[in-house]
Amino acid sequence: MSTKNSWRKLAAIALIAPLVGLSACSSQGGKAPAAGDVSQGEAAVSMPKLKIALITHAAPGDTFWDIVRKGAEEASAKDNVDLQYLSDPEGGRQAQLIEQAVDQGVDGIAVTLAKPDALASALKKAEAAGIPVVSLNAGEDRFKELGAFTHFGSNEKLAGAAVGEKLDEDGFKHPVCVIQEQGHVGLENRCAGVKEKIPATEILYVQGTDMTQVQSTVTAKLQATKSVDSIIGLGAPYTLTILKSVAAANSSAKVASFDMNPELAQKIVDGDIIFTVDQQPWLQGYGAIDSLWQNKRGGFEIGGGQPVLTGPTIIAKDSAKDVLEFAKQGVR
What we know:
The protein is α/β, with parallel strands linked by helices. It folds into two domains: 3-154 and 280-310, Response regulator (Rossmann fold, 3-Layer(aba) Sandwich); 156-278, Response regulator (Rossmann fold, 3-Layer(aba) Sandwich). It contains eleven helices and twelve strands. The chain has a six-stranded parallel sheet, with helices on both faces. The protein has a six-stranded mixed sheet with strand order 7-6-8-9-10-12, with helices on both faces. The chain is elongated and about 60 Å long.
């Protein structure tokens, strides 16, 4: 089976509980659905209200995490869950947030494993306290050893390989892959996947918490290396900044991306960005919270010990219009 066919097959979503029609919701339970809909928490009437902590490595201003959180909030409203959302991009501080959740006696923890070694000790405390853990977004190759019973996300190495394969098919020979957080295993795997398909790929590290630095570093690279024919951002806000760098450097390099927000989807429709790789973050947030509720309800372990893949799916100009409205709604 070719890589192209394999990533498409892997992009099919494994078993996730059916979505339930909901009106606007919040992390505290949300509004009651309209008449005729399933009432809030109806499926959970035989269970006490659960407290679940969602702890991510989100950096301030990264709109990707708004989509993850929205999915988690909708699952929380359906399942009558009290959701606590916490985040810190620094691994040690993220570990402290896990320990705080354990000390508070939460009923479950959903966590991203961007820097798994930094979280190992805190997750052992959760295991010792009997608190079930699921991971999402980052850590698909480490979740079991760190005590999570399932993982929701994309295979990042496979996603990177899909990008490299598409760029190669389209004739690009000298990509630059821009990593906004050095040491983040998921981002490193994305670029490694691209490099696997196009060995001439260069890795460029930037400071993702400082968009001015991102723009200046990418601009300088494009000015210094005229042979660069494509540049890949690993998140929508960074890719949109990279577009400014391309213009500032008067470069002919084409821009590709990972992830999506409404502005980036529009840029694909307009032809300014050639494609993005969607990992469906809404599903990651929804699936993580709902799987913890299902585990408490009946001991269910969705995924059967394997990661539940929510991507990769390549969104190019021919398909961007179809997902633009969903992006505007904050679910893509």
